[in-house]
Amino acid sequence: MMKRRDLLRGMLATSSLGVLESCSRSGANPPPHAAPAANEPSIDPASRALADAALEAARALGATYADVRIADYRTQALRAREARIVSISDETSMGFGVRVIADGAWGFAASSRLESAEVQRVARRAVLLARESARLYREPVRLAPITPRVAVWSTPVRRDAFGVSLEEKADRLLSLNAIALRQPNINFVDSQMTFVREHKYFASTEGARIEQTLSRLHPTFTVTSVDSESGNFTTRASFTDPRALGYEYVEDYPWEEDVRQAAEDAREKQRAPSVEPGKRDLILHPTHLWLTIHESIGHSTELDRALGYEADFAGTSFLTPDRLGSFQLGSPLINVVAEKTAPGSLATSGFDDDGAESGEWPLVVDGKFVDYQFTRDQAHWLGKARGHACSYADSWRSSPFQRMPNVNLLPGKAPLSLAQLIAGTDDAILIQGRSSYSIDHQRHNFQFSGQTAWQVKGGRVTHMLKDVAYQASTPAFWAACDALCSREEYYVGGSFFDGKGQPIQSNAVSHGCVPARFRQIDVLNTARKV
Amino acid sequence: MIPSKEAGRAIVDQVLSLSRADDVFVTLAASQTTHLRFARNAVSANGEQSDLVLTVESSFGRKSASTAVNQLDARTLAEAVARSEQMARLAPEDPEHMPGLGPQAYVEAPAHDEDAIEAGAAEITRGTAGCIERAQALGLTAAGYSHVNATAEWVGNRRGLFGHQRATNAAFSHTVRSSSGGGSGWSASVAGSASGLDFEGCSQRAIAKARASIDPRPLAPGKYVTILEPSCVASLITPFLLAMNARSAEEGRSFFSKPGGNTKLGERLFPEAVTLRSDPASSSAPGATIGSEALPQQARTWVDRGRLATLACDRFWADKRGREPVPPASNVLMDGGTGTLEELIADTPRGVLITSLFYIRFVDPRTLLLTGLTRDGVFWIEGGKLSHPVNNFRWNESPARVLAHIDAMTAAARTAPRESLAGNVVAPALRLSEFELSSVSDAV
Q1: Cα Rg for chain B, rounded, in angstroms?
Q2: What value of ipTM does the predicted structure carry?
Q3: 10-residue stretch averages of pLDDT, chain B, 444 residues long
Q4: Mapping DSSP to helix (H, G, I), strand (E, B) and coil, where does residue B97 land?
Q5: Using an 8 Å Cβ cutoff, are B212 and B377 in contact?
Q6: From the list A109, A233, A235, which residue is nearest B48 (CB)?
Q7: In the Cβ-directed half-sphere of B328, how many Cα atoms lie within 13 Å?
Q8: What is the Cα–Cα distance from A160 to A157, expressed in whole angstroms?
Q9: Who among B91, B186, B400 is closest to A170 (CB)?
Q10: Hey, are the CB atoms on B404 and A530 less than 8 Å from each other?
Q11: Is A29 domain-assigned?
């Protein structure tokens, strides 16, 4: 477990490597596979009968394939500011979605009314929409074969977050807020916890029957320091990340250390020198680097983007199919894997929303782009026999499509701790935590900033810098990576809200990585006079 | 199907009658959507969804909690009320809790079209087919998305508050790319129903931009005289309005703050031509009539001839400061000038025309600095004419600086930010004396 206050103190002192602790909270990579159990789903007979009726109705109307997801989602959220709980909410959303192939085209319809007549109506609408769309299809849908499975899968959790009392959760938020407000020059603190449970039953005309329960949570806080004389204000958000874990994540997180360090950081930002723009070496901490991986490698290796299926919204990709297997995306140090199997990671599940079993595969090997993310209905676009089980829908009301699995940067092979990396760096900026992020529609040009930025000079962390952001083009950035820490520094960050599609859908996804150094990246100063 | 006003009210009343809390606030939200997506000159996805969500917020003294359910059988409703009451009893006291409002008067917004959904699916399929045909005939590649939504909302409590609003919205977003991938153009249309969507106009504009943007010439990053098309303006003024909050300003943590707990209210921040208003009853781009905390939306001026005139203020903060609460705006109406985009270009000796903005995120809340990219058509203007396409850019700019640097504007019209397609914005095209293009993007 990383103790951040000690980490920062260690970096600022940095004469002794012994005070530095590992970034790791998830153990070594690659993680063990969380295998689905071959059990009979325990969904209630009425829901199962509705699912069967939907499939039968679609088949009777001429669908050559149909699947149905009957799902319920529970979201509990607590928000606090200073000494008050601002809101407590607990929402459930239930419904079903029917997806069919008729006349070679997809059709999808969904409803919240779990009734026999409504199931028939929705199945009819899905077939009708497919038939109308078929007139505007270029080629019929082709599904790569899968083995239809009867199975049950759940996110492994030690303590179910929904079994924890609201008082315990509210006390946790109020006590961390109280600690924050006791810190000098901290004026405000906002904190919140969100817990999600996604329970879905998938059945298809191929014979699959799969019940899955996915759990995830995201606790976070932000402290604010206001200098009323100058009118300046600074913030620092927690270094927590959303995870597919139970309440144990909240219990194990070093809240007090992070709150105290956050307060210190927010104060320090008030007086830190503004960064000198120019080409600078960067050391990116995994609490920050995961988002750069997500945007620049995660999205550029989506096959639907590369082929133009996202051209109107999220965009396309510079990694076009002619570059597959030959394009050097980064330095030979860069190895990136995709997986939906790592325990604790957000995209992990036993099966995707096509009913295909989750797996792991390389995207980048020794810097070379070797594979895409794709689903069973996309496999033939690449001449592949099977998909990579990347299909996901964010609600019963949403149609599944290709969504990002967990995409991880593998650790360096040679032993290298963060402390050693810093000690071996003459002049660089160390960036921690996620802040602003933006990338172009072909995933070339990006700009990121962090929660904190530190000057590294002569192998030591010397002081904080403010107004720091960096810009780069994806291949040039990854080519500039000349050092990766080793596996004991592996850390998993992620997001609940990866947006894609029209209408937009949210995908929860994690990215594991280690601290990494990048040479001569464009750093800009974001201070402005308005 | 969207329930009738009376049927929805009956559900709200049923829930109110189940409540044993000191105070209860009920919201019922209905939605129905049909949508169609296409890419590579073919349909790629479609769908229809309907949902009905009931939220009940129960309070005992200053302790509150809420639950939401989307199954409306008697047992689920009773359980939802009981669960919200159980949670509220467990909640800590909130010193900022406000008692429920009494009866309110909500304006009727002209935002509903009875036949929107029924007719919508066929309309958007027809419109899409035409766009694909036009692009294909020219050897171009079309992608896009359209939807038609119907929504309705009911709010009520036991203090006599009742409100109902409903709306229909349709949107179409369309990208055309050259077969080489070297040119790309985008256009969008928003309306109250699918029949109001301008599929053909979008098609023509996106095709024209795709062809005109092929083989862009390099242009170095820097500050240029820049014309922003209305959608770009919508993308910048929407986050500006969202940041207009009295409490954060008075707490010293906002662009609108001044040292010592003061705010910029009343200050002249922009040229006199800049006026930003909201009005739920706007016939051009109507907004929600029921605001946050069930406060009625009404016509308001946020920036009045360059001066900061209004900041949103929640009920607690308004009560504490002895003023009227103001919910955040539900639409944005920016006053324009006169003339067309073509006339504005003709009046510009040298500069850059930006037609679409993408991936916009805040960088610094102190200055409202945003970053983002240009996309699907950037052109160099020389001697009042579009001279040639130029490369895309990453930009770093604050909407406050954008509004401060306006030197000309066209007439205003309904538009939408590219990324949300929200149809609640009226904006002109703007010419700015400078706009900061930070670095080159190789994307096309």
Answers
A1: 24
A2: 0.96
A3: 93 98 98 96 95 98 98 97 97 96 90 72 94 98 97 97 95 96 96 95 98 97 98 98 97 94 96 98 95 98 98 98 98 98 98 98 97 98 98 98 98 96 96 98 95
A4: coil
A5: yes
A6: A109
A7: 10
A8: 6
A9: B91
A10: yes
A11: no
Q: How far is A210 from chain B (nearest CA, A)?
A: 23
Checking if the pLDDT of A8 tops 60, the result is: no
Is A92 in Cβ contact with B366 (below 8 Å)? no
The conformational region for residue A7 under phi > 0 = left, psi -120 to 50 = alpha, else beta, is alpha
What is the average pLDDT across A513-519?
98
Among A239, A271, A303, where does a domain finish? A271
Identify the pLDDT of residue A486: 98
Of B42, B66, B401, the CB nearest to A136: B42
Burial annotation A277-304 (CB, 10 A radius, 16+ → b, else e): eeebbbbbbbbbbbbbbbbbbbbbbbbb
- Residue A21: its pLDDT value, please? 30
Domain closes at, from A132, A149, A166: A149
**Three-state secondary-structure class, residue B368:** coil
Q: State the nearest Cα–Cα gap between B383 and chain A, in angstroms.
A: 30
State whether A445 and B394 contact (CB < 8 Å).
Answer: yes
Structure tokens belonging to residue A369: 């782009």
Q: With beta carbons under 8 A apart, name residues in chain B contacting A453.
A: none
Residue B311 to residue B263: CA distance in whole angstroms? 10
Domain of residue A411, residue span: 276-525
Q: In terms of CATH, what superfamily is B5-211?
A: PmbA/TldD superfamily (3.30.2290.10)
With beta carbons under 8 A apart, name residues in chain A contacting B65.
87-90, 166
In a domain, A438, yes or no: yes
Question: Same domain for A255 and A319?
Answer: no
* pLDDT for position A229: 85
Which residues, listed in sequence order, are joined to residue A470 by a DSSP beta bridge? A448, A523
In this structure, the answer to whether residues A71 and A113 fall within a common structural domain is: yes
Per-residue pLDDT at A71? 97
